[in-house]
Amino acid sequence: MVGLDPKILLRAYSVGLFPMAESFHDPTLYWIDPEKRGVIPLNKFHIPRRLRKSVRRAKYDIRCDSAFEEVIRRCATPAPGRKETWINKEIINLYTELYTIGQAHSVEAWLDNKLVGGLYGVTMGGAFFGESMFSDARDASKISLVHLVARLNAGGFKLLDTQFVTKHLSQFGVVEIHRSGYRQLLTSALEITADFLPDLSNDMLEMFIQSTTQTS
Predict the structure, then answer these.
(1) Tell me, what DSSP letter sits at residue 11?
(2) In this predicted structure, what is the pLDDT of residue 4?
(3) Strand order in the sheet with 114-124
(4) Cross-strand partners of 63
(5) Would you tell me how many other CB atoms lie within 10 Å of the CB of residue 52?
(6) Per-residue pLDDT, 203
(7) Considering the chain, what is the average pLDDT of its residues?
(8) Fold (CATH) for 34-68+103-215
(9) Where are the alpha helices (H) located in 76-139, listed in sequence order?
């Protein structure tokens, strides 16, 4: 894949493609177009009971877009049970460029002013394309995900793309849909204008948590 820039990258997302590398040390990027796609229905997001208590306890300071590049670099770092990642230097540079033009965002968990977890993704229209997450403290990435979905719902988003279905995401209500169904959802989501809402009040968060209790 030669000459990839943010404009081409966004065009690819708009038709259902996304890039990955074989490993951090492999400079080559490949377009991925899964036959089956992971999606978390925003109106059916599930928060496990124990995690709901952790979110309300507010152990972490949750911030948005205050350390985007650090988040993506931490996602690219090997961790226990994950010797390699698909995020290479080219991806780090490209998505950091997307962040600078307002098309990528991070949600971060901080503890004592130290970044201990978070996630990042791409926004287009009413779609959020989740890319990766990391956690160095208990529930840090999970709580970041809860805050992300609360923002997406409040901001009018219609699609949360997780790319694949994983055991980790299954607890939140992720579903697997065929490529054709995904593209229909994507087309509809791209037709609307949504607001990422980097600021989320405690009242808005509590209303969201209560809504997941009613729908889960």
Answers:
(1) H
(2) 84
(3) 61-64, 104-111, 114-124, 127-135, 159-163, 36-39, 175-178
(4) 108
(5) 17
(6) 93
(7) 93
(8) Aminopeptidase (3.40.630)
(9) 89-100
First-to-final CA distance of the chain: 42
Q: Up-side HSE of residue 141: CA atoms within 13 Å toward CB?
A: 16
Q: What are 165's two structure tokens?
A: 């279905």
Percentages (nearest 5) of helix, strand, coil residues in the chain: 40, 25, 35
Question: Would you list the domain boundaries of the chain?
Answer: 34-68+103-215
pLDDT for position 205: 94
**What angle in degrees, to the nearest 10, is found between the helix axes of 6-14 and 89-100?**
90
pTM: 0.94
143-171, pLDDT tens digit by residue? Answer: 999 999 999 999 999 999 999 999 889 99
pLDDT 10s digits, 25-40:
888 999 999 999 999 9
Q: At what angle do helices 140-154 and 202-215 cross, to 10 degrees?
A: 90
